[in-house]
Amino acid sequence: MNFRTVIRWIERGHLEAYKLPGRGDNRIPVESFVAFLKGNNMPIPDDLALGGKVLLLFAENSNQSVEIASAARRAGWDVMVTADPVQFGFLIAQQQPGAIGVSADKDRASVEKVLKDLDGREIVCLCFDSGAHKEAEYQHHWLYYHWPDDQQALINYLTSDVAA
User: Fold this and answer.
1) Which phi and psi angles does 46 have, rounded to 5°?
2) What is the spatial distance between Cα 158 and Cα 52, in angstroms, rounded to a whole number?
3) Which domain of life is it from (predicted)?
4) DSSP secondary structure string, 53-76?
């Protein structure tokens, strides 16, 4: 791809960019570049794919959440943790994670309301809970892990092709 071609795309408004003060070099936000590639049926490099290997964990800061985050990182995932429901919704929109995890101390029905706005995007929903819940009352399919007993099962799932 020629440098001038990219400049023309920016000048014509096909590709969102901003100029740096001083030299005037263009910078293209990653989200805009990925949207441009998708919109033009161009391949998206793995390094730029949003959310593919990002796990957003909605949990209180506890030993359990630290252990879960550590296990996910060992499985090759980037992990973000928040206990704030507003920040959780913001991070889903901003980061577009490939998976979310919810600890037993959080209300999954509230999480479902946030997930409803994903426009049909697939997301892996993990629940770290010891109790049995009926999945029928929820829109998304949830996978249950009892922590720490199911630690290896979680790692196996996160390293499988199904989760990636």
Assistant:
1) -55, -35
2) 11
3) Bacteria
4) TEEEEE--SSHHHHHHHHHHHHTT
Segment 43-90, tens digit of pLDDT: 877 666 555 688 999 999 889 899 999 999 998 898 999 999 889 988
Q: What is the DSSP letter of 20?
A: P
What is the set of domains in the chain, with CATH numbers? 3-46 (no CATH), 54-159 (3.40.50.2300)
The most distant pair of C-alpha atoms in the chain lies apart, rounded to whole Å, by: 60
Give the Cα separation of 68 and 157 in Å (integer).
13
Name the residue among 81, 77, 54, 52 with its Cα closest to residue 66. Answer: 81
Q: Residue 150 is encoded by which pair of tokens?
A: 């199911």
Q: What is the Cα–Cα distance from 54 to 79, expressed in whole angstroms?
A: 6
**Overall pTM surpassing 0.70 (yes/no):** no
